[in-house]
Amino acid sequence: AWTGIPYAQPPVGKLRFVAPKPAQKWSGILNATGESPKCFQPSFGRGTRSEDCLYLSVSRPKNGMKKMPVIVHVHGGGFQVGFMGPRENSDFLMDEDIVLVQIQYRLNGFGF
Question: What is the pTM of this model?
Fold first, then answer.
């Protein structure tokens, strides 16, 4: 699985209350192996929270080299709470020939 892939610039400072801007290019190889912070929300789950939370993760079977259907999971939570599921939550899907993409988005007053 690849985690912590930015899909937008960090929504901080002048970008706090505006529509997301495309992620900036990075040079070299992006280390997409760590957990990304969750978006600010009422106490819900564990982990680091930050305004810099616009990330996605991609999971696929270990030997998945052929074309496969893609499932894009957008968490629920009434625009108040929620985050990308941990890697373990997608393990059961990795026995199937699919690619799973999970996204995080700004919540509450920061997003809606």
Answer: 0.81
Judge contact between 92 and 59, C-beta under 8 A.
no
Query: Number of folded domains in the chain?
Result: 1
The one-digit pLDDT tens for each residue of the chain (112 residues) are 888 899 999 999 999 888 999 999 999 999 998 888 888 777 656 667 788 889 999 988 877 778 999 989 888 777 677 777 665 556 667 778 889 899 988 877 777 6
What does the DSSP assignment read for 2-69?
EEEEESB----GGGTTSPPPBPPP-SS-----SPPPBPP-SS-SSS-B-S---EEEEE--TT--S---
CB atoms within 10 A of CB 3: 19
* 23: containing domain: 1-112
